Amino acid sequence: CLLVLTAAQDFDFFYFVQQWPGSYCDTKQSCCYPTTGKPSSDFGIHGLWPNNNDGSYPSNCDPSSPYDQSQVSDLISRMQQNWPTLACPSGSGSTFWSHEWNKHGTCAESIFNQHGYFKKALDLKNQIDLLGILQGAGINPDGGFYSLSSIKSAIRSATGFTPGI
């Protein structure tokens, strides 16, 4: 699920990307729970991605600024809860977060340092309760089928943004 934030920098806007653990696991060859335990049945952050209006996006912009977990040490428990890795083999999340910073975060350094990048994504997750939004519209994680238009409409009504799904 994608939500858009605008910015006037070296790119045009951000995608705030969340994923449903069950869908991730259903669409991958395999998935593994983080070493910190099974994630909650809630959307998890996938990333905060700079993007351009023409569909292109910058990536891996600053190899001289690698992920440094010590810069986000005060955010780690929130990241483990809200930004869990589902990749195999199981991990703590550090490899996933490193990938997200190196590929996407380094392209947003004109706006955020490393701590600010991860904190902004966590704050957006806290601000945009996607599961609550959908449940409030009667769309529940119950194995039922819901139309794409009803899902998009519920998210658009609650956030003011049209999601990409």
Automatic annotation (TrEMBL):
<keyword id="KW-0255">Endonuclease</keyword>
<dbReference type="InterPro" id="IPR001568">
    <property type="entry name" value="RNase_T2-like"/>
</dbReference>
<protein>
    <submittedName>
        <fullName>RNase Phy1</fullName>
        <ecNumber>3.1.27.1</ecNumber>
    </submittedName>
</protein>
<dbReference type="InterPro" id="IPR018188">
    <property type="entry name" value="RNase_T2_His_AS_1"/>
</dbReference>
<dbReference type="Pfam" id="PF00445">
    <property type="entry name" value="Ribonuclease_T2"/>
</dbReference>
<feature type="active site">
    <location>
        <position position="46"/>
    </location>
</feature>
<keyword id="KW-0378">Hydrolase</keyword>
<keyword id="KW-0456">Lyase</keyword>
<comment type="similarity">
    <text>Belongs to the RNase T2 family.</text>
</comment>
<dbReference type="GO" id="GO:0016787">
    <property type="term" value="F:hydrolase activity"/>
</dbReference>
<feature type="active site">
    <location>
        <position position="100"/>
    </location>
</feature>
<keyword id="KW-0540">Nuclease</keyword>
<feature type="active site">
    <location>
        <position position="104"/>
    </location>
</feature>
<dbReference type="GO" id="GO:0033897">
    <property type="term" value="F:ribonuclease T2 activity"/>
</dbReference>
<dbReference type="GO" id="GO:0003723">
    <property type="term" value="F:RNA binding"/>
</dbReference>
<dbReference type="InterPro" id="IPR036430">
    <property type="entry name" value="RNase_T2-like_sf"/>
</dbReference>
<dbReference type="GO" id="GO:0005576">
    <property type="term" value="C:extracellular region"/>
</dbReference>
<dbReference type="GO" id="GO:0006401">
    <property type="term" value="P:RNA catabolic process"/>
</dbReference>
<dbReference type="InterPro" id="IPR033130">
    <property type="entry name" value="RNase_T2_His_AS_2"/>
</dbReference>
<dbReference type="InterPro" id="IPR033697">
    <property type="entry name" value="Ribonuclease_T2_eukaryotic"/>
</dbReference>
<keyword id="KW-1015">Disulfide bond</keyword>
